[in-house]
Specification:
The protein has 119 residues and is mainly alpha-helical. The chain contains five helices and no strands.
Length: 119
């Protein structure tokens, strides 16, 4: 891990409305590195998440994960933050037709079942 690791991650990580929890980061990253995670995986995951946040419109909002969560024990930096190739436009619920709302609700329920969540 380079000497300026914190500066690198702060520059790459998406801006957030609210605290980040940067203070816990060194301990978390050292644990990951000791368990075989590479610095490159951490950096690439951070870049991928930042791009996804920008694409989804979450940058500079409270919906960006706190850094201590992103780099924490669940290792969110290893997730795939693939940006869809098809154009997708976020719309407020009020702008959806009744049919679109039903489809979205059905998709959400199916995703929750797939993930094992209780609804």
């Amino acid at each position: 891990m380079p000497d300026d690791w914190l500066e690198i991650l702060k520059n790459l990580y998406p801006k957030r409305s609210g605290g980040q929890g940067w203070g816990a980061l060194e301990r978390l990253l050292m644990r990951h590195l000791a368990n075989g995670i590479t610095w490159e995986q951490i950096v690439e995951g951070t870049k991928s998440y930042a791009a996804w946040c920008k694409y989804s419109g979450h940058s500079r909002t409270e919906f960006v994960k706190q850094a201590r969560t992103f780099f924490g024990r669940d290792m969110w930096f290893l997730e795939d933050y693939e940006i869809p190739t098809e154009a997708y436009q976020y719309r407020r619920v009020e702008e959806l037709t009744e049919d679109e709302r039903r489809k979205d609700a059905a998709k959400w329920a199916a995703d929750m079942r797939r993930l094992g969540a209780k609804s």
